[in-house]
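Q: Hi! First time doing this. I have a protein sequence and I read that you can turn it into a structure. Is that right? Here it is:
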Amino acid sequence: MPPVKMYCTAVCPYCIMAEKLLNKKGVSQIEKIRIDLDPAQRDEMIRITGRRTVPQIYIGERHVGGFDDISALDAAGELDPLLAA
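A: Yes, that's right. Below is the predicted 3D structure, encoded as structure tokens:
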């Protein structure tokens, strides 16, 4: 399973839902980067993703977006193969 990295904050409901979906898919480890604790990480997230909202999720080297994006991938049957790569 490729590594999963998620830019998040402590109180973001979409971050929590994304983590639950990933856990349901068998992801046991998520590298969480808390942008609410480190403003430099927020700037880095915006620079590399072009987005300002959390969560921003990477599976391996691929930026898959936020909760709506991974939910859409799951609905389309594309999340499992991505996690199995």
